[in-house]
Amino acid sequence: MPDRITSWHPAPSRPRFAPPAGAVDAHCHVFGPMAAFPFSAKAKYLPDDAGPEMLFALRDHLGFARNVIVQASCHGTDNAATLNAIAKSGGKARGVAVVDPAISDAELAALHDGGIRGVRFNFLKRLVDAAPRDKFLEVASRLPSSWHVVIYFEADILDEMREFIAALPVPVVVDHMGRPDVRQGPDGDDMRAFRSLLDSREDIWFKATCPDRLDARLEGGMGDPWDNFAAAVAPLVADYPDRALWGTDWPHPNMQDEIPDEGHIVDMIPRIAPTPELQHKLLVTNPMRLYWPEEV
Length: 296
Fold this sequence. Notes:
alpha/beta, TIM Barrel, eight-stranded parallel sheet, 34% helix, 12% strand
């Protein structure tokens, strides 16, 4: 068995930025605990336990009100750990599942009852063995009303993803903006290509997330405080303010080097959304429309 990975900061700082009332961390995960919710035999990494109690304590520490818990790839298509966390949240969490393409309509309905509001399709070859696009489209055609699809891919396959994305019959959320090379700046090839994708459909949303991944010093970026990320992403949020989401990505799956301080990640928010109006859209209005539409 591989060594287990601790990928989160042991004592995150309290951010200088105070999120607005009702702010949502719209991209985070839970790991296990393994004794109750074993990891998938196909998992590409084996994390230490990071259960709902830890997540909700961090939520309160950082000044947020709600979470959107995204099923981590280490749990495969068994969403029990995510559902457990949602159930323990007291209504303050919703979720995004990863499902087997053969899932039944009854199973999808049960996920909805458990607080799931979308499914995630992962196209990162280092995390999944295969991505059956035709089967993904069939699942997308059967999703409960008001659900959406979350897709995770890297910038170098954006062009080959366009036909698949265009065929999705529900709104689309792109994880981490499709991982552009933020070193190219706001007008670089990757960001221009991503803008063209956003312009192709009015119901494509994006997560302005993961400065620690996209601007990592080990990959030639700036590292904390992630100046490349701020410069590249702020214009995107400004130009598409009604389709931007934000999240911590805690507990930062499979990160072993340059583990970020979550307080510093929160302090990125005013750098990419500098006005109170933009901050409210990014953290409250937009995630509430997607995940708690009955309260909007």
